[in-house]
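2024-03-11 09:14:02 INFO worker-7 job=invfold-0412 stage=load source=structure_tokens
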């Protein structure tokens, strides 16, 4: 069953205003967001003893006894560095290929659970994004604080084993409440009698609000399983027609007992390879 019921956008905005007011009362707490290996632990998980340090073109760095994510460098072209202060994370985006010019400053505000409730990327985005979660700490809604109709809605379905729920779809709307696109997700979760494969080193899905980050573990959990397929349905194209894109994912896993992903191959619906990336890991400090 899907875990989000549709309500009118205006009604939703009113409800969210109350929810976010409650969340902001928690903002004085000192926050230390979950590290990558801590986030990968649940009722079914083994102890994770690796940190992701290479994801395709991205090189990742961590610091401190909690191995907090602090830096991402992509192909020596740009870097994102993160500083932690109280309930805020401040990110600095630097264009390394353009004389180290600073392009933007990102600010993420966390609640007492370590979940992001607001983010602002200046001057790239001239608005604040607000986030709302369900009782399972899963992201339900991300919207423009000043124009709530501009939003992404997240729906979840119960996992086949009944032990959790996974992101099923994300729908995107513009400021005029026009449906732009929808992204559907399928997983290696044992559906239809197949085998299940857990994702022990999860990162955030690519299809999130524009102000999010793939590696910051502050947007809740999306699924316990490896992603098998995404279907992107584009509904609104100026002077064009609706389109659909299908992406299928296959994995090579480490045989060292960690089940870490060594590589990910992405193909389209015709079997053409879109991308092939490798991942590398390191043993975190203190483990």
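2024-03-11 09:14:09 INFO worker-7 stage=emit residues=287
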């Amino acid at each position: 069953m899907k875990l989000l019921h549709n309500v009118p956008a205006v009604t939703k905005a009113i409800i969210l205003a109350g929810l976010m007011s409650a969340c902001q009362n928690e903002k004085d707490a000192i926050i230390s967001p979950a590290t990558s290996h801590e986030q990968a632990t649940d009722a079914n998980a083994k102890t994770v003893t690796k940190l992701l340090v290479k994801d395709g073109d991205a090189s990742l760095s961590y610091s401190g006894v909690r191995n907090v994510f602090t830096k991402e460098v992509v192909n020596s072209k740009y870097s994102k560095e993160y500083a932690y202060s109280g309930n805020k994370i401040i990110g600095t985006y630097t264009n390394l290929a353009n004389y180290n010019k600073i392009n933007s400053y990102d600010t993420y505000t966390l609640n007492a659970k370590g979940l992001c409730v607001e983010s602002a990327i200046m001057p790239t985005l001239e608005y604040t994004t607000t986030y709302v979660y369900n009782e399972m700490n899963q992201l339900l809604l991300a919207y423009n604080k000043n124009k709530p109709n501009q939003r992404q809605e997240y729906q979840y379905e119960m996992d086949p084993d009944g032990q959790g729920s996974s992101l099923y779809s994300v729908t995107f709307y513009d400021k005029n409440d026009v449906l732009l696109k929808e992204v559907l997700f399928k997983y290696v979760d044992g559906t239809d009698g197949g085998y299940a494969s857990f994702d022990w080193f999860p990162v955030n899905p690519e299809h999130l609000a524009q102000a999010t980050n793939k590696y910051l573990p502050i947007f809740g959990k999306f699924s316990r399983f490896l992603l098998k397929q995404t279907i992107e349905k584009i509904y609104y194209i100026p002077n064009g027609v609706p389109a659909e894109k299908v992406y299928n994912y296959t994995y090579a896993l480490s045989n060292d007992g960690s089940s870490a992903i060594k590589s990910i191959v992405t193909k389209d619906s015709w079997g053409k390879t879109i991308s092939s990336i490798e991942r590398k890991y390191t043993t975190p400090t203190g483990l």
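2024-03-11 09:14:09 INFO worker-7 stage=report msg="Residues 9-25+42-48+129-282 form one domain."
2024-03-11 09:14:10 INFO worker-7 job finished
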